[in-house]
Structure formats: structure tokens, C-alpha cells
Amino acid sequence: MGSTPEQSLPTPTTPAGREGLAALLARPERAVVALDFDGTLAEIVPDPEQARAHPGTVPALAALAPKVASVAVITGRPADVAVRHGGFAGVPGLDHLVVLGHYGAERWDAVSGTVHAPAPHPGVAAVRAELPGLLERFASWRGTWIEEKGRALAVHTRRAADPQAAFDALRGPLGALAARHGLIVEPGRLVLELRPPGMDKGVALTEFVRETDAESVLFAGDDLGDLAAYAAVEKLRAEGPDGIPGLLVCSGSAEVPELAERADLLLPGPGAVVEFLSALAHRLPSGPTEV
Description:
Blueprint: H1 5-8, H2 15-26, E1 31-35, H3 57-64, E2 70-74, H4 79-86, E3 97-101, E4 106-109, E5 114-116, H5 122-136, E6 145-148, E7 153-156, H6 163-180, E8 184-187, E9 191-195, H7 201-212, E10 216-221, H8 227-237, E11 246-251, H9 257-262, E12 265-267, H10 270-283
Parallel strand pairs: 1-2, 1-10, 2-3, 10-11, 11-12
Antiparallel strand pairs: 3-4, 4-5, 6-7, 7-9, 8-9
Helix pairs in contact: 3-10, 5-6, 7-8
């Protein structure tokens, strides 16, 4: 006989992670499941416009979302792009899904199907005007390209002849450009994102956990931009006797060992993350736990 979903649910390697998973399993209706998109629910691809959620993502989330307080996708992408690339709109069972785009600056709720967002930071338009000229001045950076993200801009080096050298060479000039216009640079997996300060995945996750009055939280990510969410979960766990148990999942990548070293559970990529979410959904009761 094949293994059941219950048998396939992996065990976290740390005491804090085991406590977080146990709290989620005990009272799922008071749990938030928060997930990065690229590299966690979708494979990293050379062209981000071609990224799509793993085929099992929507079925897994549709099975899981009705059993927990909320599922939140927290991403640096615009919220509507993540919704489109994830295939999240109009899916039965995803009423409890929220997409927090641009690190929480934008919000899409499945119930309303609309995006709410503040006015864009003026520095983004200034950087948008200067960035192409900056890149064109340096032949050694050939192969880099700009991703338009609406409220941010990202420079990718994955297509360059020496991707890591281009990434390292660009950090200083892009940091100076961003600073002149009141922006910051967020490094990632061979990508440097220029975006407004003040919001990150940690801030977005903390605010969402408080909003939902969650008693436990799971966060899964894969990149440097997810470290802020990791730190937020660690802080929530450490808030004395009333701390919120949490489980940190890493969608494994040799490119970002910093995340793997802090994770409670290491999974080898989006396919394994989706399998874990599906197994978790099957482990939980069909309806709300009686209290």
C-alpha cells in the first residue's frame, strides 16, 4: 500500500518548529499559513513573466484554506501579477486566501477579488528613468535586464555571462541610485530590487498575524527577502509566555544557505512544499475545531 498523507507529513528538526506544527494541528482555525511565491510555490525561471505556480498549488491551497484562519501569499511581486501567475482568482475553497503584494503594500482578497494599494512612491519613477542609462554604460554588465514591477524595479543578472560577478558589481551603483531617490535595494537570488523603504515581508506578516488574532503561524520562503519574515516569526515565538508558536519552512536552495540554516523544516523546492501543504490539509479535520 502507498503512503497516506498523514504518513508523509514531515517532522520539523527543531523543538520550536515541532511546537509550531503541533499548535497548528491542534487549533488550525486559529492558524495563519503564509507563503512566498517565487521559489516557494513557483519554480525560479530565467524570465519571471513565465513563472507559474506549481500545478499542485491551487488544489493544495483549496484543500487547506477552509481549515485554517487564513492563507496569505506574501510576495515582492504586484498582487495582481501573483494572483494571475498563481491562478488564484475564482477558485472554490480559496475564500480565506489573501495576497500581500509588494511586500504588503498591496492587498488582494479572494472574497472581493480586488486590489487595495496606496499611491506609488515618487522615487520609483525617477529610478525608472535613470536605470537603463546606468546599465548601458558598463559593457561588463551585458545580459542584465530590468523587470518592471510597478511599485518597484528589479535588475536581474541570471542571463549575464558571469551572473554572480554582475550581481556583485551592481550592488554599489544600484544602492547609490536608490538612495538618491529615497529607495532601498533588496538583494535576492541573482536579482537586485529597488523599492520603497518601510515595508518588508516581516512587517507584512506581523501585521497580518495581529489582524487575524492568530495563535500559530507557518511561513515558507526561499530567498533573502524572506529573512525578514523569518525574523518576524522568531520574534513572535519569543514574546514570553504569550508567544505565538511558529514553523519556518525553507524551500531549499543552495543559493541561499542563510534561510536553510534558520529553518525548522527544509523542503527541496516548490514541488515538495506543495506536497507538504497537501499533506497538512489532509491531516486537519474537515470542519472547525470545537472550542
